[in-house]
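User: Sequence recovery, please. Input:
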């Protein structure tokens, strides 16, 4: 796994060297100051108001020697790579060229490498690529935007291009997870979901925990998500944008956060783990129709939801909120204000809890409960307004009289029997769909079960 963090008692030290933005560009003489937390440089000037550039040491990525062809024998030249931050939480890899005398170089590089190598940055990754995700550019995204950055930072990779559904499961089943520092998915929310599900199943197996109980288990293998799919909702929640290079740099930096997972159980058996959303009713039918219209390409994500919406039908349901953290999906205490019943269009359970922000809903990845939003009978117009707000995650998207919200550590959903009905019902789990085969199902929260590359601040 990651190398242990090294104790660094680094005193503030200043070096004088030449700096340029690019090789062969005219350099300037600067004073570079290095501490445990920051690297700063300022142009050597007779005035005292030289502009200071600062880089957090957590943003230092790599240092590589350069061959300059200089006649100055004692001059050592290196390129230093680091993360540069921009508005909207976008990050880019940038670099500067540093030239210094031999003695200064030895001291400076020793301290820089101590910082870079003593951090939690990954050294070996397992990468899964879905070649047909989104606009079918997963392989190109990896080759052009991931591989070069991983190579610069000295990260070894084991690349698997998925060829079928559940391919990740078959790989992870036999894979030695102790040989890697993390897993990367290049695709959409569905590929991440498949990876997370397979990883947690393997974790249950290794921990000798029965899959079909609701006993929580936690994976210590971090997962990084590269947004190469259609929706890329989870990565936007995590990083604040859908920028590919930003996602890559979060992985390289190695900082991680815990995220909740929801388990779906039918007939006391685990069906699937979900990391983004579980939906029943209208949302399940939308996803089912999207799959049936795959021949339409990306257009299906606009056509299928409209078709399902204009054919909307209510389902008579009883929903019970479960309280407490027991090991059974059945034997829980039932809290106050925890029942909903009657005809409903849909149930939505967002695994990262969504709360109102200034303009957008804000996700909480490691909450102590799940929220279930039930959409009751309403007009077409009001329902459409609600769905459009949810789709864009606008603040107040659940603040409607016909949307009822309950919270708990899980939920039991029961269909009220309708005699003679042959209607099929589908559950949406992270953009995939499952046919419901019984009259009820359970959802159980697994707090902080998965570790993700990236931070939510």
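Assistant: Recovered sequence (457 residues):
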């Amino acid at each position: 796994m990651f190398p242990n963090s090294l104790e660094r008692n680094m005193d503030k030290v200043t070096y004088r060297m030449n700096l340029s933005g690019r090789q062969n560009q005219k350099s300037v003489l600067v004073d570079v100051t290095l501490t445990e937390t920051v690297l700063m440089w300022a142009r050597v000037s007779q005035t005292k108001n030289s502009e200071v550039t600062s880089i957090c040491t957590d943003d230092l990525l790599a240092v590589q020697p350069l061959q300059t062809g200089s006649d100055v024998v004692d001059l050592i030249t290196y390129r230093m790579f680091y993360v540069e931050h921009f508005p909207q939480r976008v990050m880019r890899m940038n670099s500067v060229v540093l030239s210094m005398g031999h003695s200064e170089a030895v001291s400076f590089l020793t301290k820089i490498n101590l910082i870079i190598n003593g951090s939690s940055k990954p050294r070996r990754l397992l990468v899964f690529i879905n070649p047909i995700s989104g606009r079918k550019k997963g392989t190109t995204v990896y080759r052009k935007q991931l591989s070069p950055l991983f190579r610069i930072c000295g990260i070894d990779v084991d690349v698997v291009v998925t060829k079928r559904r559940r391919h990740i499961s078959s790989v992870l089943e036999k894979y030695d997870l102790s040989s890697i520092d993390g897993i990367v998915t290049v695709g959409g929310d569905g590929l991440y979901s498949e990876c997370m599900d397979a990883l947690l199943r393997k974790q249950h197996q290794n921990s000798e925990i029965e899959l079909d109980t609701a006993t929580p288990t936690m994976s210590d293998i971090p997962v990084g998500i590269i947004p190469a799919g259609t929706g890329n909702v989870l990565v936007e929640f995590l990083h604040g944008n859908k920028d590919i290079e930003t996602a890559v740099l979060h992985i390289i930096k190695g900082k991680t956060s815990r995220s909740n997972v929801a388990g779906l159980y039918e007939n006391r058996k685990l069906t699937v783990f979900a990391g983004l959303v579980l939906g029943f009713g209208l949302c399940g039918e939308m996803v089912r129709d999207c799959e049936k219209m795959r021949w339409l390409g990306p257009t299906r994500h606009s056509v299928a939801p409209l078709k399902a919406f204009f054919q909307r039908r209510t389902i008579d349901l009883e929903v019970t909120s479960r309280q407490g953290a027991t090991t059974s999906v059945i034997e829980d205490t039932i809290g106050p204000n925890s029942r909903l019943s009657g005809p409903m269009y849909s149930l939505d359970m967002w695994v990262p809890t969504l709360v109102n922000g200034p303009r957008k809903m804000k996700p909480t990845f490691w909450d102590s409960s799940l929220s279930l939003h039930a959409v009751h009978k309403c007009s077409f117009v009001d329902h459409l307004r609600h769905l459009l707000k949810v789709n864009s995650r606008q603040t107040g998207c659940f603040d409607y009289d016909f949307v009822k919200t309950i919270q708990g550590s899980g939920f039991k959903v029961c269909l009220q029997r309708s005699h003679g009905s042959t209607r099929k019902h589908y559950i949406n789990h992270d953009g995939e769909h499952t046919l419901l085969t019984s009259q009820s199902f359970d959802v159980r929260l697994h707090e902080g079960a998965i570790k993700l590359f990236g931070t939510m601040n």
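The longest strand covers residues 333-350.
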